[in-house]
Specification:
The chain is an all-alpha fold. It has 15 helices and two strands. It has a two-stranded antiparallel ribbon with strand order 1-2. Strand 1 and strand 2 form a beta hairpin. It is flat and about 65 Å long.
Length: 324
């Protein structure tokens, strides 16, 4: 009997010890990480989640931005789709903006990054130099280019006085005396050009960094096989930086639906709404026309378009396009 009780007691002690150990392990691996992330979760809840839910509610109301909104269901969404030509025009301008920024800056950036990747000395100087426009505030950049595009005192007026450029402008049929930002047919493209002036430098630095991470052995092997510079770029460089290109394509498409600052600073959506984009339209409806409920509905559609782009990215990633 004594031998039996002596055999049982060690098992009880081992069980009693394991409970505090399991408790400590749970605290260390489950509770403590959540305590560290709790401030970020609370901040996200206050800054993102609650405003998003409020926007969803107010999009279903007729609300001026003050007081209590009147619930009207999906009437705001019906209005912007079927009864608001300004929304359709602004959406079309966002799509034009996206088409521009998914082609022009990417082509310029890839070409510039490939040229910079061939520089062996002083490369950091060129990278810093081309990155300067990106760090300039948008207000400063817009003010500089507004003066440069002035048809009376800007760079176009100065070039128009030179005979060589006079003949060139005449050849391409360009009237250098028009106000590019004040013409409904050129305002949006002019703003996109100004925004591109500061944006393509950012892409260049990103692509250059991605190119420098490609294993040099791949280039050496391709050169041994007789590949020229164009073939190196097409068959080695582009596949090597494909994840970076795809990610920036997605981000640029999303940013194209969030554009606001350059359009607002330069034209405020004019002339006659020709450069209106969704961000500017939401601002006007919320703070000038005091239709905050309708503006909330428009803002939600911007989030829907961004979410659709993210779904396309996830699909491409699932298909293996994101892998190098």
């Amino acid at each position: 009997m004594a031998s039996t009780s002596g055999a049982v007691r060690p098992v009880q002690k081992s069980t009693e010890r394991s409970i505090p150990l399991l408790h400590k392990r749970w605290v260390r691996k489950a509770l403590i990480p959540w305590l560290f992330i709790l401030p970020i979760l609370l901040l996200h809840l206050l800054v993102v989640t609650l405003p998003a839910l409020s926007s969803l509610y107010y999009s279903l109301t007729e609300w001026s931005g003050m007081g209590q909104g009147e619930f009207i269901g999906l009437d705001n969404f019906k209005r912007l789709i079927f009864d608001d030509p300004n929304y359709i025009r602004a959406l079309g301008n966002n799509i034009k903006w996206m088409a521009f920024f998914l082609t022009v800056p990417f082509g310029l950036s890839l070409f510039a990054a490939f040229l910079l990747s061939q520089i062996k000395r002083g490369g950091i100087f060129y990278r810093l130099l081309i990155f300067i426009p990106y760090i300039l505030p948008s207000v400063v950049t817009a003010s500089i280019w507004r003066n440069l595009l002035n048809p009376r005192q800007g760079i176009l007026a100065a070039l128009g006085e030179i005979p060589l450029f006079q003949s060139f402008f005449a050849t391409i049929g360009f009237d250098h005396t028009i106000a590019l930002l004040g013409n409904s047919s050129t305002a949006l493209l002019s703003i996109a050009f100004i925004d591109n002036w500061h944006f393509w430098d950012f892409l260049t630095v990103l692509f250059l960094t991605a190119m420098q991470s490609i294993d040099a052995v791949l280039y050496d092997a391709a050169k041994i096989d007789g590949a020229n510079s164009r073939q190196l770029f097409r068959h080695v460089t582009l596949p090597g930086i494909r994840p970076t290109i795809l990610f920036m394509l997605v981000m640029t498409a999303i940013w194209s639906f969030l554009v606001f600052d350059y359009v607002w600073i330069l034209t405020e959506g004019g002339p006659a709404g020709s450069s209106d984009v969704l961000g500017v339209l939401v601002y006007k409806n919320a703070f000038r026309r005091f239709e905050a409920g309708y503006a909330a509905a428009q803002g939600l559609t911007m989030s829907m378009f961004s979410g659709f782009i993210i779904l396309i990215f996830l699909l491409l990633r699932k298909l293996g396009w994101y892998d190098a």
